[in-house]
Specification:
Elements lengths: L1 H19 L2 E5 L5 H11 L3 E6 L8 H6 L6 E4 L5 H11 L3 E4 L13 H22 L4 E7 L23 H20 L3 E6 L2 E2 L8 H13 L6 E3 L5 E2 L2 E2 H11 L7 E4 L5 E2 H11 L9 E3 L17 H7 L7 H20 L1
Helix pairs in contact: 2-8, 4-5, 5-6, 7-9, 7-11, 9-11
Bound molecules: NADP nicotinamide-adenine-dinucleotide phosphate and ligand G4F.
The site of ligand G4F has 24 residues, from helix 7.
Length: 346
């Protein structure tokens, strides 16, 4: 009898937990931020739907690295295909949508300006329209970026009062998406939030981005697999944080009583050169100049020389702060690349 009651109670509990579980739709699930965000949401009991494009060779490596592949329900959609997004919102009516999908590599955005605009700008309009028509209570997070500030700053930092002055087609495309996100909030009362995130990195950062290119290169040199790293502008400065910390801020933005826009960064900036030095230092190499070659192919038509956040207001409002500092981030990424390459060598 006691056992029977226990089983009934257990089933009821599971059933009500299933009914109560919040649902989140995450675009860009296969990228860097998607897996970290999915892990955080799954840990909080969410049912997570991850949007993937049609692919010939699926690559779930990042999700496997974070340990969430298999726990996510994959659904097909494309930011350039309005009807696919409408169908997803109409059929799932998720509590929260995190729009992380983008052509996110600044360096390619000059050559791929039209595609960058279609994915990063129009795709956001499609998603917002779908929410407006089919699920107006859905809360929406837009992955906005410090790249929108470009050369603009106030006393050397960027915060909520800094005007946008984007320097790349990528930056321009994100400014459109930023304002559409604000406009749908103000026009239709949707709960929409922009997270203006400064650069954030991790062991699953795309290999084209400078931090990962450096840590992969340093690991190869350390293991005798390469002799040099070819880079562009070593003087550019960025406010680099850890992606795992930044997804917490995304989540918190959608839990607030009122929607808003937030700056997310560490408040510290370092040059590419400093990143290179720190990465080589971590594997015991001090003469890094012998291994780094400057290559004009990696210079940009228009550069963003210095990005440094003032995240104070966000920290106060969300009660958020980054946990991983610059040196810890560099060490984490170098160690992960050394480990990965050592395993490949065996
Ligand atoms: P990421 O690694 O480049 O991932 C982007 C994801 O978008 C990829 O999974 C990609 O899918 C997907 N995608 C691209 N085109 C698509 C399309 N047409 N339809 C559906 N999905 C598409 O980027 P991330 O570093 O995780 O960044 C996440 C978001 O934050 C991006 O919007 C980025 O612009 C923004 N952001 C990033 C940073 C940063 O420092 N990481 C800072 C500020 C803002 P495939 O895997 O199929 O190619
Ligand atoms: O790592 P990056 O390519 O990142 P970038 O351009 O700052 O963009 C990233 O951060 C943005 C947020 O601010 C995101 F919105 C965006 O999606 C992306 O995640 O380049 C960083 C800096 C640049 O100044 C670049 O000119 O590093 C410089 N750099 C120097 N040599 C290089 C290289 N960048 C790359 N990718 N490759 C080089 O060889």
């Amino acid at each position: 009898m006691i056992l029977q009651n226990y089983l009934v109670y257990k089933n009821l509990l599971c059933y009500s937990l299933l009914i109560m579980a919040k649902t989140a739709l995450v675009t860009g699930i296969l990228g860097q931020d998607g897996p970290y965000l999915a892990k955080l949401l799954l840990d909080k009991g969410y049912k997570v739907y991850g949007v993937t494009r049609r692919y010939s060779n699926p690559n779930f490596e990042n999700l496997e690295y974070v340990g969430v592949h298999g726990k996510i329900q994959y659904v097909e959609g494309d930011m350039t295909d309005e009807s696919s997004l409408m169908n997803l919102i109409k059929s799932l009516r998720p509590d929260e949508v995190y729009n992380l999908a983008a052509q996110s590599f600044v360096g390619s955005s000059w050559d791929l300006a039209k595609m960058t605009t279609e994915v990063n700008s129009l795709g956001v309009l499609y998603l917002l329209n779908a929410i407006k028509y089919f699920s107006p209570t859905t809360r929406f997070y837009q992955a906005s970026t410090s790249e929108m500030f470009g050369t603009s700053h106030i006393n050397g930092v960027q915060d909520d009062n800094t005007p946008f002055y984007p320097r790349s087609p990528y930056g321009v495309s994100k400014v459109y998406a930023y304002w559409m996100t604000v406009n749908f909030r103000e026009s239709f009362g949707l709960f929409t939030a922009n997270g203006i995130l400064f650069n954030h990195e991790s062991p699953i950062r795309g290999i084209q981005f400078v931090t990962r290119k450096i840590t992969d290169g340093v690991a190869r040199i350390k293991l005798g697999l390469a002799e040099e790293i070819r880079l562009g502008n070593l003087d550019a400065r960025r406010d680099w944080g850890f992606a795992g910390d930044y997804v917490e801020a995304m989540y918190l933005m959608l839990q607030q009583e009122q929607p808003g826009d937030y700056i997310v960064g560490t408040g510290e900036s370092h040059s590419v050169k400093e990143f290179v030095e720190a990465a080589f230092r971590h594997v015991g190499i001090t003469n890094w100049q012998d291994y780094v070659k400057q290559d004009p192919r990696f210079m940009r038509p228009a550069e963003v020389p210095d990005l440094k956040s003032n995240p104070k207001e966000t920290m106060d409002k969300l009660g958020w702060k980054p946990k991983v500092n610059f040196d810890e981030l560099v060490a984490m990424m170098v160690d992960a690349d050394v480990k990965r390459l050592e395993a490949l060598k065996k």
